[in-house]
Amino acid sequence: MSDLRDLYQEVILDHSRRPRNAGALAGANRAAHGDNPLCGDKLALALRVRAGVVEDVAYEASGCAISVASASLMSEAVKGRPVDEAEATFRRFHRLLTAERLPDDVGDLGKLEVFAGVREFPIRVKCATLPWHTLHAALERGDEGEATVTTE
């Protein structure tokens, strides 16, 4: 188990040091801002959604390694996926971190399983889920303008 935990930490550190899909997104038609005042995490998320598919995603994130890594891995997980699939991934990821028992359907989260260890540190759950709640808000709001999400 120690080797697996080390691997998970390595993946989180890699994504926090070299976040994927970070930056601005030209032609975005969905956006949301996320804020975790307790930890200082901030996220500005932009999406381009066409024909029910998340064509592209970009974000500007500042905060702890868990929050930045979560945004990076989230962007990889939803880019190119149908909106309903992105929303289903959000729900499974949220259950992974917040359910009383480890859910049975965790196996289909792929790389996102690296965050399973965050369950042991409840204060960090908000750091890991902030990008996902921000994604959910952007998708749910649609073209109605920017949404704002806070963990408090």
Q: Unreliable stretches, pLDDT < 50, 5 or more residues?
A: none
What is the succession of H and E elements? HEEEHHHE
- Spatially, the strands of the biggest sheet line up as 3-2-1-4
Domains, number: 1
Number of strands: 4
Backbone CA Rg: 14 Å
The coarse overall form would be globular
Q: What is the tally of helical segments?
A: 4
Task: Provide the CATH topology.
Answer: Sufe protein. Chain: A
Q: What separation lies between the terminal Cα atoms?
A: 33 Å
Write a brief caption for the model.
With 152 residues, this protein is α+β, with helices and mostly antiparallel strands.
Q: Describe it for me?
A:
The structure is a single chain. This protein has helices at 2-17, 65-78, 83-98, 122-141, and strands at residues 30-36, 41-50, 53-62, 147-150. With 152 residues, it is of the alpha+beta class. The chain has a single domain (2-142), classed as Sufe protein. Chain: A (Alpha-Beta Complex), CATH 3.90.1010.10. The N and C termini lie far apart (33 Å).
Key descriptive features of the protein:
152 residues; alpha+beta; Sufe protein. Chain: A; 4-stranded mixed sheet; 4 helices; 43% helix; globular
Secondary-structure blueprint of this entry?
Blueprint: H1 2-17, E1 30-36, E2 41-50, E3 53-62, H2 65-78, H3 83-98, H4 122-141, E4 147-150
Helix pairs in contact: 1-2, 2-4, 3-4
